[in-house]
Amino acid sequence: MSESMSFSQLALPEPILRAVTELGYEHPSPIQEAAIPKLLAGEDLLGQAQTGTGKTAAFALPLLARLDPKQSEPQILVLAPTRELAIQVAEAFQAYARYMPEFHVLPLYGGQNYSTQLRSLKRGSQVIVGTPGRILDHLDRGTLVLDKLRAIVLDEADEMLRMGFIDDVQTIMDATPEGRQVAMFSATMPPQIRAIAQKHLGGAQEVKIESKTSTVERIQQRYVMLDGNQKLDALTRVLEGEEYDAAIIFVRTKSATEEISEKLGARGYAVACLNGDMNQAHREQTIRRLKADQLDVIVATDVAARGLDVERISLVVNYDIPYDSEAYVHRIGRTGRAGREGKAILFVSPRERRLLRTIEHATRQPIEKMSLPSGQVIEQRRIESFRATLAQTIEAQNLSFFQDLINEWRDSMETTDADLAAALLYLAQKDQPLNVASQFPEIREPHSRDRDTGDRPRRERFERGDRPERSGDRAERGPRPPRREMKGDYTTYRIEVGKEHGVRAGDIVGAIANEANIDSQFIGNIKLFDHFSTVELPASMPNEIFQHLKKVYVRKQKLNISVDTGAPASASGERRPAGPGPRPGAAPRPPRKPRD
């Protein structure tokens, strides 16, 4: 890579250059420098590069530059091996195209209900990013039409081969129009990938980028697995429980810098934000305050923190995980500079596991999993900090006036030195209480149906509709095997989809698990009838999830979930177990204990 080359030298349109600059990109990576001019010229490309080298921007930026904004039909199709990568690539396209009017990108993958995807397809999207199984499913249904396709990208082709999708990829490639541009990226080039390249890429030149070791020495790197709604609590715990002088918190958007700095300020932190909307004078003033110990925490975007070198910064928190490893290295490089020690903590949601693996692979360093500081740890740190301040005050201040007051008050109030000191301590710590252990309940790692269990090819087949029956379908599978232990009480619900709609127990489990974010192990017995079904769900299910499930579709049929009343079923003669219960839509009846 030429260090002097900038993105402005790559002939990209101004709206894309503006977005790239705001995202903090300075110089193109080797794969970007090699691939962008070729793809801009309309050439086919066979790229061999490791994950984390910046290849998403290498194909997204030039293909966006060739997009026709007046055409709403799909013009670019990106195939990705997993839904996590599909989401990541779609988000990158959206970020690069933020200043392109009327731009729409649509990720298509299993786990989403079809009605949402069909509405988005009807609205029109210029870029489609999807897993092979779901893309092929929409092609078979006729809901995805590729007549106007200009380019197709195979991202991580060797991974798709390993996962058993290569036949699907071939079928999709054959369904694309002649003359479309093709870009294929793969870390390795096994014979099957070479065969696809020879068939579909013709005489395309191969670009091969050797990966370089990227090391960040003297920085302790750790990550926390949590849901997005747990981040602020987790950040507070980190800032309370970690030893640091000053910290910088990285987020993706300008609005997030303002929102988080405001919330931290309300919690008593000396905090300010850095973002692209700040003028140079304001930025310099904020950095001066940080260097002068007037600020302890900065919340910043990548571009705003460019070139920031403040010796006090000993902790970096990646509140939002970066999309590529180069941004990650740039972020954590704000600490551990000039031989100093540093710490970096990364917040990761279950769907971002792949980004975590990408960063580890690209930096060739493991990132250690950590537990958040407990309430007891935070309480002890507050006590130690208060004690240190107290000792410093005793050492440095003339306290004779206050000693006289203490003696006078003790005598007039007829109290003891211990009681008087305790009362004063209570008043002094009211703004930041010392006794807080009970106020910090444990943050549990979220359940995820996307854990890296090695069964992704099997899950992708489920996405295409040939999902095997779950154990709850007694009509075909016989008695239900003992289910795993379920915690809490359960309520039986009725859903308005049954055998006549072609539904299977696995369809119901998949829809509820994805839409309600309920781990499948907490979905109880499912009974299928002709016109409806019943399902056991935790009685503690929040009302907003209950209302959301009413609108979910399974097999093109709205669930319309309601509390089961035990009423007669239909004219078919089927009856459900009779029993008292509330009318549909009423408050759930008192829950019963789950059966063993």
Automatic annotation (TrEMBL):
It is an enzyme of class 3 (hydrolase). A motif (Q motif) lies at residues 5-33. Residues 579-589 have a biased composition (Pro residues). Keywords: ATP-binding, Cytoplasm, Helicase, Hydrolase, Nucleotide-binding, RNA-binding, Stress response. InterPro entries: CsdA_RRM, DbpA/CsdA_RNA-bd_dom, DEAD/DEAH_box_helicase_dom, DEAD/DEAH_RhlB, DEAD_box_RNA_helicases, DeaD_dimer, DEAD_helicase_DeaD, Helicase_ATP-bd. Residues 442-488 have a biased composition (Basic and acidic residues). Residues 5-33 form the DEAD-box RNA helicase Q domain. It is found in: Cytoplasm. SUPFAM superfamilies: P-loop containing nucleoside triphosphate hydrolases. It catalyses: ATP + H2O = ADP + phosphate + H(+). Residues 36-207 form the Helicase ATP-binding domain. Belongs to the DEAD box helicase family. DeaD/CsdA subfamily. This is ATP-dependent RNA helicase DeaD. It comes from Rheinheimera marina. The lineage of its organism: Bacteria, Pseudomonadati, Pseudomonadota, Gammaproteobacteria, Chromatiales. The gene is deaD.
